[in-house]
From TrEMBL:
Name of the molecule in the record: CBM2 domain-containing protein
Chain positions covered by the region annotation Disordered: 141-164
GO molecular function, one term: polysaccharide binding
One Pfam family cited in the UniProt record for this chain: CBM_2
Lineage of the organism: Bacteria, Bacillati, Actinomycetota, Actinomycetes, Micromonosporales
Keyword match ATP-binding: no
Entry-linked SMART domains: CBD_II (SM00637)
GO biological process, one term: carbohydrate metabolic process
Keyword terms, alphabetized: Signal
Signal sequence interval, chain numbering: 1-22
Length: 356
């Protein structure tokens, strides 16, 4: 049985601090026809255990209406606070997404942001490479595709059937929602963080597929998913409409013994919700926006995914706020932990064999 996701917005302690101008607004296009970029990365100062750095990213291609910069640290550095960008980090990989006010980046335009970080007091090398909206920054421009940049990409499920006993994640994009790489990258980041957390808590974790997020182009505009009745209350309409389309398009099942399936859709009415159970997580636009970094601090969305995956693995809600992710304590992520009974419930449940 599907369990409702808790909708109350409570902000817990930040895992990676998000500061100064989180991105806001609707979905924007994050892909340009011609692409190229240059990045300046400068360590301003460093001290015992800490440092600060300034980053300047110059767009050499066609104008962008949303940007995502990525790099990986080579010596264990960790971003602890950022300004003028929304940052998340998973292992050594860092993602910086534009703030709401600096999303537009003209040709030859430059956006700057900074951050504080921690380091090992031995080595603090500059990252070897950066990508801007998936394009490697070489200081040169490469031609884009011949198609119009406004043409949405085709759906991108794997070319072969993913391995069974793994976790598949989907972003279903209604016909009137523009493609935005931030949603693909953001959902993937949330899934990787949940994967890390489950290993921390259980000593083993689930396997994600490649690509982590499968983009599924919907058959209907956003309003259809929001207003077409499906289920006994409007809370479920959006997510049930999404789930049934995913079942049909990808030959999935509910429940599905082959995979755990995580569906997110960029559609949400005022009554919309989501939940998890029976090997499924189904979430509406509120959660998709959160994963993309445009709906508040990331810890709420990390904790929410841990919670809903708990339902997918077979756990019920806790009966009280008990410090575990299966209660409202998930808002305190990462300062929340599964109880021993919950750990056994996951490991001995119907999807415990998915963990290794």
């Amino acid at each position: 049985m599907l369990q409702r996701v808790r909708r109350t917005v409570v902000v817990g302690a930040a895992l990676v601090t998000v500061v100064a101008g989180a991105a806001i607004g609707g979905v924007t296009s994050a892909q340009a026809a011609a692409a190229g970029c240059r990045v300046g990365y400068t360590v301003g100062s460093q001290w015992g255990g800490g440092f600060n750095a300034d980053v300047a990213v110059t767009n050499l291609g066609d104008p962008l209406t949303g940007w995502t910069l990525r790099w990986s640290f080579a010596a264990g550095q960790v971003v602890t606070q950022a300004w003028n960008a929304v940052t998340t980090q998973s292992g050594s990989a860092v993602t910086a997404v534009n703030a709401g006010w600096n999303a537009n980046l003209a040709t030859n335009g430059t956006a700057t942001f900074g951050f504080n970080g921690s380091w090992n007091n031995s080595s603090n090398p500059v990252p070897a490479s950066f990508t801007l909206n998936g394009v490697v920054c070489t200081g040169a421009t490469t031609p884009g595709p011949t198609a119009s940049p406004s043409t949405p990409p085709t759906s991108t499920p794997p070319t072969s059937t993913p391995p069974q006993r793994t976790v598949r994640a989907y972003w279903l994009r209604p016909t009137d929602v523009a493609y935005d790489q931030r949603y693909v990258d953001g959902i993937a980041t949330v899934m990787r963080e949940a994967q890390r957390y489950y290993r921390q808590e259980l000593g083993k974790t689930f396997t994600l597929n490649d690509p982590v997020v499968e983009v599924v182009n919907g058959d209907h505009p956003r309003s259809w998913y929001e207003n077409t009745p499906n289920g006994n209350e409007c809370y479920w309409w959006v997510v049930f409409n999404m789930q049934q389309e995913l079942l049909r398009k990808l030959s999935l099942r509910a429940p599905d013994s082959r995979w755990i399936n995580v569906g997110e859709i960029s559609a949400e009415a005022s009554c919309s919700g989501g939940g998890g159970g029976g090997g499924w997580v189904i979430l509406s636009g509120h959660d998709a926006d959160g994963a993309a970094g445009i709906n508040g601090p990331m810890n709420r969305w990390y904790g929410g995914m841990v919670h809903e995956l708990g339902h997918a693995f077979g756990l019920p809600d806790s009966t009280s706020t008990d410090g575990t992710p299966m209660s409202a304590s998930f808002y305190s992520y990462p300062n929340t932990h599964f109880s021993q009974a919950q750990k056994q419930g996951i490991l001995n449940g119907p999807y415990g064999g998915f963990l290794s």
